[in-house]
Amino acid sequence: MIKIVIIGSGNVAQHLIMAFAKSKEIVVSQVFSRRKETINHLIDSKKITADFNDLAEADLYIISVSDDAISEVSSQLAFENRLVVHTSGSVAIDSLDSKNRKGVFYPLQTFSKNKAVDFSTIPICLESENESDYELLEKVAQSISKNTYKINGDQRKSLHVAAVFVNNFVNHLYHIGNEICIENKVSFDVLKPLILETANKVLSLSPKDAQTGPAIRNDKHTIEAHLDFLTNENQATLYKLLTQSIQKNGKEL
Amino acid sequence: MIKIVIIGSGNVAQHLIMAFAKSKEIVVSQVFSRRKETINHLIDSKKITADFNDLAEADLYIISVSDDAISEVSSQLAFENRLVVHTSGSVAIDSLDSKNRKGVFYPLQTFSKNKAVDFSTIPICLESENESDYELLEKVAQSISKNTYKINGDQRKSLHVAAVFVNNFVNHLYHIGNEICIENKVSFDVLKPLILETANKVLSLSPKDAQTGPAIRNDKHTIEAHLDFLTNENQATLYKLLTQSIQKNGKEL
């Protein structure tokens, strides 16, 4: 059995605890948390500690705290030369204190407190300083997911930025669609099949080939009608800029 | 049996021909097309005509041509007082020639030539001038879809604008994500589970509640790191504007 200690009790930490609970090769032997109440429904409370000096010996320490706290937490660990990883998409491997062996274990997904996720489909991006540590990380990742990737620091940074576009920004466009529906007394439900199909389409078509709509057709009449319709200035500004961006891109073909 | 004549042979017309072929209450008795070769794999070629004077008598005429051509096509019909509808999200019902009874039959979905769609889940937005025509349109729509909606002209216009945001613009953000992956030699596949989960999330959560990421957290450190990373000016401009838009919106809470 591979022994893991998880440091942190936020969204990602909680989903990891649940995912490892189903694995036969992994045991979460301890969780560090100052907020015991957030996780005592997920793990035996005797396994929870709030004292860095009390951390058990393990094969792997997963620091899953806010980006800003990773460096500080890693320097507070009271041991040396063990394998310590963080779970962040945007923090460099070298932010971890160098008294331990460093690595990254980044599950690229959006986690919500109230929504279960199927961890087996989540890509896990792995990085380490040496090959034997990488093998351990890969074994741990493969015990909970079918999709593991060797990703270096620069690639991980690029994935994190790309993820902001395809997740955070996309969700904001859903929000604007919802706002327009509310303002015009139409149910947002009417748009949901379109939202799903738009996502499903790029599983098999490249987004460039999947592009449709007035911008790529350069249908000036429709674009003007839409801009007339959008009295909300913020919505109109986004409409213009995204239309221009689609058209610029079309020309690069 | 309800007899339908479809005028046009583009993407939407083709998908309608296929959907009605499975319906037991509807028969497509004729299709008008000047490009016979685009549809003769879908329907008996004897049912295809390219002559407006040759159009058969039917309960419903569906004009499914480009937005700009709808008005002109409707005025070329050589009969009067029959039910004639178009399939556009952005064209007013009154663009149809008033010698016939007018209506709208707008399937809100993105149609690609090479990708089959399950019509049963596609919302169909209906509008007509009188109640008995509406009942017929509803019967026709329900024979191919579970989701039919009574939507007036203004509501349809708003749905069309909202659809540009949640479909065309969202797809463009997928494209930018893909570009970033290509530039940094990472597979776009890594992002696909995230894309699907982001879409699935808003089926049960409102987009406002589903919003995550550096913008809504006002995580200035990460936002600056991302802007440093984005050397492509167009990508950086979109990143800034979408970040500002998310933050403005958060404040309205």
The biggest beta sheet of chain A is recorded as: 8 strands, mixed
N- and C-termini, Cα separation of chain A: 53 Å
What is the H level of CATH, i.e. the homologous superfamily of the largest domain in chain A? NAD(P)-binding Rossmann-like Domain
- Percent in strands of chain A: 15-25%
Strand order of the largest sheet of chain A: 3-2-1-4-5-6-7-8
- The structural class of chain A is alpha/beta
Overview of this protein structure:
Two copies of one chain form a homodimer. With about 250 residues, the first copy, chain A, is α/β, with parallel strands linked by helices. The first copy, chain A, has two domains: about 150 residues, NAD(P)-binding Rossmann-like Domain (Rossmann fold); about 100 residues, Orthogonal Bundle (N-(1-d-carboxylethyl)-l-norvaline Dehydrogenase, domain 2), CATH 1.10.1040.20. Chain A has nine helices and eight strands. An eight-stranded mixed sheet of chain A has the order 3-2-1-4-5-6-7-8. Chain A is elongated and about 70 Å long. The model of chain A has no long low-confidence stretch (mean pLDDT about 95). Chains A and B meet through α4, α5, α6, α7 and α8 of A and α4, α5, α6, α7 and α8 of B. Chains A, B: InterPro entries: 6-PGluconate_DH-like_C_sf (IPR008927), DUF2520 (IPR018931), NAD(P)-bd_dom_sf (IPR036291), P5C_Rdtase_cat_N (IPR028939), TM1727-like_C_sf (IPR037108). Chains A, B: This is DUF2520 domain-containing protein. Chains A, B: Pfam families: DUF2520 (PF10728), F420_oxidored (PF03807).
